[in-house]
Amino acid sequence: MKHQAKKRFGQNFLTDQSVINSLVDAIHPQEGQTLIEIGPGLGALTKPLLSRVTALQAVEIDRDIVNWMHLEYQMPAYAKNKLTVHNVDALKFDFSAIGSHLRITGNLPYNISTPILFHLLDHLSCIQDMHFMLQKEVVERMVAAPSTSAYGRLSVMLQYYLQMEYLITVPPEAFNPAPKVESAFVRCIPHATLPFVAKDTTLFAELVLAAFSQRRKTIRNTLKSFLNDDDFTKLGIDPQRRAETLSVAEFVVMCNYLYSAD
Ligand code: SAH
Question: 34 CB under 6 A from ligand 1?
Fold first, then answer.
């Protein structure tokens, strides 16, 4: 079957075998583990992964690809119940229903990568680790340190829950069709124990959102509905600072101060 790549599903299929090998090596799949692949597409990662693990569950939105998979993997993967394909939108998929210690991976559709990351945060207790191919610029934001241009809401929200590692930069030519941007492979591991615990994670998310809503403004301005100058003095945080200079720990301190003040 010849598959025409669909732009609306962010289909950029990996074709460079040496890149594929390094990704699989980085994932380091092992017998006995349950792997979940988001967006398996035409199997660039699925096939080498299937040869190394006991079970693989794929979440794929495109019905044409799912039909192709049924034919392609009929033997031996399906016969051995090794491969399960869920023809659903990963954004709506209940990952926790699959089990625990999940190892999730995928060359993600770039147009929905941030919503997928946030969706996965809701299922962290059942996740062992995640390895994703994303737009390089997004990976840079995920791992960014305070006071750098890439640091923002995504960095704070993900670093609160995850330890992350930038693994490999991948050029557009490694895909077909080639995306317009460079890509990068990232590893995300949920913190075994959260380094800083927010007493109210909804409030934490609201604070982070408000602080970064206008990057160029001071937090005295962006956080004025939460904290006044007195509060900032008590917290020992200079209200003249901008959100991009605040560490995850400082956001947590502000959140817990507000929580206790209520
Ligand atoms: N892993 C393959 C394909 C990557 S392209 C490879 O590396 O070659 C992205 C894949 O994600 C496509 O198969 C696309 O159909 C699928 N996809 C896009 N949006 C999705 C969604 N919301 N849920 C699940 N899969 C999705």
Answer: no
- For the Cβ of 43 lying below 6 angstroms from any atom of ligand 1, the answer is no
Residues 121 and 15 in one domain: yes
Is 120 a pocket residue for ligand 1 (Cβ < 6 Å)? no
Statement to judge: residues 184 and 208 lie in one domain? no
Within a 10 A sphere around the Cβ of 253, how many other Cβ atoms? 17
Percent of the chain surpassing pLDDT 90? 87
What CATH number has the domain bearing residue 50? 3.40.50.150
89 CA distance to ligand 1 centroid (A)? 10
- Ligand 1 centroid, distance to 214 Cα (angstroms): 33
B/e letters for 44-58, b = 16+ CB within 10 Å, e = fewer, are: bbbebbbeebebbbb
Mean pLDDT of 48-58: 91
Same domain, 137 and 243: no
Number of domains in the chain: 2
* Count of C-beta atoms within a 10 Å radius of residue 100: 10
pLDDT at 76: 57
- What atom of ligand 1 comes closest to residue 20's alpha carbon? 7
Q: Tell me whether residue 94 is exposed, middle or buried, using C-beta atoms within 10 angstroms of its C-beta: 0 to 12, 13 to 18, 19 or more.
A: exposed
- Residue with token string 């609160």: 160
* Cβ neighbours of 185 (radius 10 Å): 23
